[in-house]
């Protein structure tokens, strides 16, 4: 496919992410695979909770309609029940089974048969894990932007950075995905006359993690919030980031540049650096 | 494996989730597969950001050490670069390649070769998507627990429920995973003398979604926050949930029971019901 081809000339195909659960994994892995084919345009549909043959039959009709419309459908599926998966194979579309084949591989490796009843993507009804997550999200809200010092000694991570470097989304992701207690603290002009970390977080230096970004990007993000302010000016952003990075280095706080990273990547790096992986 | 076998008698195997990116997908899919084998004990390790042959060689040593310790390792991998993946095959462990085989299937389906450069799990540096996520998380924090009515007309979803039914984690998940603007509003005793929805959210009834749970579980969660209070008593929880469910039915607000569902499942159901899927 020639990259200069206009968007409308590129073939458009219908893609179905079909799951007996939420569809999140089918979507994530399917999209990662599709990203390798930039020459195509895809029309994506996620269809979750397909856990009976009847539900699968209805999906087959949807896929058939897409085929009739000339969209040459492709199916990605994560179905734990092989019989339900096989219903999808009656649709006029190749199916990429993201789960079934690997289950067979794992059966061979472990020398035993999979127990159909127990395959759950997410631990449903696991009360302890649910409580941990709820507590973590509430802790993150309470400790967003240095709002509270209550129970700060229990923080697993304290993210520090100048305003608008990406502290909040990363905090929430760590709380939700890993159930960690995460606080974040904004570095302001007041934090810079001194040599050390801000007074509030200084006792927990070993749990601090810094963020930085590029001045241009920071200025862009700050203009969104306060257009044409000193706060958003390139000069001010350059100064704050330079001071923050100097502070991280001086206090030996590990840090990363958020400008080229997704929230998932930043979270994974923080976990790894602070050795918070199980 | 006999289920009555004591935990210590069950074989323990080392499982490695290895990725050139965050490892989240390898972990999620790998754990979904392992959940089908309840007769085994697994010692899980996630090793992200393995994107060079050198890094993979170091991982092979870690796997070899686990093998020497008698833990009969298993590897799950999501590597976009096949050559890096092949380095892992020199380890004394079967590798379940969650990506490579499917890439070949997709190449056959599309009749073209994958472009190695472009396979990214998460859209790195996608400024617009990043802004949307940041705005969504900030909106969710601002609108948690009915704290603000500012810009409530822009909410994609308003989750309503009595205190401690799981509004906050679900709100955050929808904001982070899908970039949706989500508010949540607590139903209190004051909301029940009237027939309709609370005044603040009534104009947006079509975007409201209700949560309920079981009285026993609600009482358990509330005891965590305020032990032995009227608020946490089974009688009070039963009453509040009955009133909330009556309100949802009367006002035709769709609702679900959070007691047996994960945050991911609730989010997927809400998306589907309110037709918020792309």
From TrEMBL, chains A, B:
Name listed for the protein in its UniProt record: Putative phosphoenolpyruvate synthase regulatory protein
Catalyzed chemical reaction(s): [pyruvate, water dikinase] + ADP = [pyruvate, water dikinase]-phosphate + AMP + H(+); [pyruvate, water dikinase]-phosphate + phosphate + H(+) = [pyruvate, water dikinase] + diphosphate
Molecular functions per Gene Ontology: ADP binding; ATP binding; phosphotransferase activity, phosphate group as acceptor; protein serine/threonine kinase activity
Keyword entries, A-Z: Kinase, Nucleotide-binding, Serine/threonine-protein kinase, Transferase
Pfam families: Kinase-PPPase
InterPro entries: Kinase-pyrophosphorylase, PSRP
Assigned EC number: 2.7.11.33, 2.7.4.28
Role played: Bifunctional serine/threonine kinase and phosphorylase involved in the regulation of the phosphoenolpyruvate synthase (PEPS) by catalyzing its phosphorylation/dephosphorylation.
Family: Belongs to the pyruvate, phosphate/water dikinase regulatory protein family. PSRP subfamily.
Chain residues that bind ADP: 161-168
């Amino acid at each position: 496919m020639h990259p200069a081809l206009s968007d409308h000339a590129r073939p458009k195909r219908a893609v179905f992410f079909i799951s007996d659960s939420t569809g999140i994994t089918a979507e994530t892995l399917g999209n990662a695979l599709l990203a390798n084919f930039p020459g195509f345009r895809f029309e994506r549909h996620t269809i979750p909770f397909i856990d009976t043959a009847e539900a699968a039959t209805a999906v087959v009709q949807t896929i058939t309609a897409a085929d009739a419309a000339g969209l040459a459908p492709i199916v990605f599926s994560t179905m734990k029940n092989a019989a339900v998966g096989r219903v999808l194979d009656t649709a006029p579309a190749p199916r990429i089974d993201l789960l079934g084949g690997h289950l067979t591989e794992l059966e061979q490796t472990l020398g035993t048969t999979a127990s159909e009843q127990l395959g759950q993507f997410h631990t449903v009804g696991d009360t302890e894990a649910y409580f941990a997550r709820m507590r973590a999200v509430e802790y993150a809200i309470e400790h967003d932007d240095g709002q509270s010092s209550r129970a700060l000694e229990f923080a697993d991570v304290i993210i520090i950075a100048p305003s608008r470097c990406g502290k909040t989304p990363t905090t929430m992701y760590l709380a939700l995905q890993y159930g960690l207690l995460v606080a974040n603290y904004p570095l302001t002009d007041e934090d810079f006359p001194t040599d050390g970390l801000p007074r509030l977080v200084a006792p927990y230096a070993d749990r601090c993690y810094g963020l930085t970004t590029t001045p241009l990007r920071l200025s862009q993000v700050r203009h969104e919030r306060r257009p044409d302010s000193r706060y958003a000016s390139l000069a001010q952003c350059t100064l704050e980031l330079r001071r923050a990075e100097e502070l991280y280095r001086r206090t030996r706080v590990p840090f990363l540049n958020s400008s080229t990273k997704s929230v998932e990547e930043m979270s994974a790096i923080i976990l790894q650096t602070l050795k918070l992986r199980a």
